[in-house]
Design brief:
- With about 210 residues, the protein is mainly α.
- It has one domain.
- It has eight helices and no strands.
- Helix 3 crosses helix 4, helix 4 runs antiparallel to helix 6 and helix 4 packs across helix 7.
Length: about 210
């Protein structure tokens, strides 16, 4: 039993993450889920960042190098960009990309915007796990498969006006240059190639030996 590959995977890195971090993270999710469900609706949880928030919680408790590595190559660049965009506008008033403009919208309840500050916490947790557990080279293939599942599901069940995960276009309005399914197929190819692969190469170089 001790030699079982699955058992070894479940035990990998066990005890390397403080319990208080796991508990605090989980309690935060217990608050966020019902509030987000009521404020944004259930389809909001299909955003890549929200999926990463949940899977990182599982990675914390299992101390799973693979799950954390998948989320890191999938969303870490976006979470870092979100943090820079938010802090720059909050401190200087300069809007860099507009991706966090909703955080400064007074029509949205303050508590709802406050919960979105998890975008600042999530990359810190991912990087902590990378330092504690290392990087798993299998993450690129696993995350690509997840992308190929999430994007079509998002396309099928969400409103184009929400444009979750940009499955309908790069802007606020659905794109009209390509047929919708052709655009979706192109996104499914490009996300693993131009986002996941470069981050995979960087993290493999930095953390694979840990």
């Amino acid at each position: 039993m001790n030699g079982c590959p699955k058992a070894r995977w479940m035990r990998a890195g066990r005890g390397k993450v403080p319990l208080w971090i796991k508990v605090a993270y989980t309690l935060f999710l217990c608050v966020l889920v019902p509030v987000y469900w009521r404020g944004h609706g259930p389809t909001n949880f299909l955003w890549a960042s929200d999926i990463a928030l949940f899977i990182t919680c599982v990675a914390l408790w299992l101390e799973s190098r693979l799950l954390n590595s998948m989320m890191a190559i999938g969303v870490l660049p976006f979470e870092l960009a979100w943090g820079v965009d938010f802090l720059l506008e909050a401190i200087t008033g300069v809007r860099l990309t507009g991706m966090t403009q909703y955080m400064f919208n007074p029509e949205l309840p303050l508590y709802l915007r406050g919960l979105s500050l998890y975008h600042l916490m999530l990359p810190l947790v991912m990087v902590l796990l990378l330092f504690r557990l290392g990087y798993d080279r299998r993450a690129l293939i696993a995350q690509s498969v997840l992308v190929w599942i999430v994007l079509p599901v998002t396309y099928l069940v969400t409103d184009p006006s929400d444009n979750i995960n940009l499955v309908f276009g790069l802007g606020t309005e659905p794109q009209t240059v390509l047929p919708p399914l052709a655009y979706l197929g192109l996104e499914m190819i490009l996300v693993p190639v131009i986002i996941c692969l470069p981050v995979h190469l960087v993290l493999r170089s930095l953390f694979a030996g840990r």
